[in-house]
Design a protein that fits this description.
Helix content: over 70%
Shape: elongated
Strand order of the largest sheet: 1-2
Length: 242
């Protein structure tokens, strides 16, 4: 029953997302077709800081609902694919012993960070094509490479943290929360829980902004963090027998 409800929810997200994208394509980007070029010329002589602030505020007056609907639609689609991936992940996790190995989970964790890189390119290319940036603005290559560097560093640091938190813990056969039995375990679970909650908080603004990479990856990151939150401590006696 729960699976059917979840699948219906995913289907609803994808249908609404696809519908919003399709409807957005019927709308023009701006009330005046050449509004971005006219505004770029108008503001070109202003000081740099004032130029960019005026661009962002004045461009909104020419925008139709196209951008908001398209962004929301892509965000909902990404969320739907994210939820579908989580269901698939846990489905195979419970049925395959090889997927319960830490090496496999860490590989998936790194792969999710890797997916964010091409989706970052896509995010900025979409905004460049719809003239979100003025012609005298900086190249989109700058934020793309900056964020790519952040994702690489994030992958390394987060992987190290997960490795530290997985020492003397084994992944559960079935992810179920259990009460910690020591101060160190409480600290471990508290840190992972805060990390988990912070990841969930990234989903909502990402969906609204149409940031597919952040929306999709945040859902999968949350699923893997939950897996580590429910890990079982390996006691010395059982470990020695193995």
């Amino acid at each position: 029953m729960k699976t059917k409800i979840t699948l219906c929810f995913i289907a609803l997200l994808c249908i609404i997302g696809g519908g919003l994208i399709a409807y957005a394509q019927t709308l023009p980007l701006y009330t005046e077709k050449d509004a971005p070029s006219k505004l770029s010329t108008k503001l070109q002589q202003l000081p740099r800081e004032k130029r960019f602030s005026e661009w962002n505020s004045q461009l909104r007056h020419f925008e139709t609902p196209h951008k908001r609907l398209s962004d929301l639609g892509r965000g909902l689609l990404a969320a739907g694919l994210g939820f579908a991936s989580i269901i698939g992940f846990f489905h195979f996790y419970k049925r395959n012993s090889w997927q319960k190995k830490k090496g496999v989970i860490f590989t998936i964790w790194i792969a999710i960070w890797g997916i964010k890189i091409p989706l970052t390119w896509w995010y900025y290319i979409v905004r460049l094509k719809r003239f979100d940036f003025p012609v005298w603005g900086d190249s989109i290559a700058i934020p793309i490479f900056q964020e790519t560097f952040v994702w690489i560093i994030g992958a390394v640091i987060s992987s190290i943290l997960l490795i530290l938190f997985s020492i003397r813990y084994q992944l559960p056969s079935s992810p179920i929360l259990h009460k910690p039995d020591s101060i160190l375990e409480w600290l471990r679970v508290t840190f992972l829980s805060l990390w988990f909650i912070l990841t969930l908080f990234c989903i909502y603004p990402s969906v609204l902004d149409g940031d597919e990479g952040m929306a999709f990856s945040s859902l999968l990151f949350a699923a893997i963090l939950f897996l580590f939150m429910t890990s079982n401590k390996v006691n010395k006696t059982s470990k020695s027998k193995v």
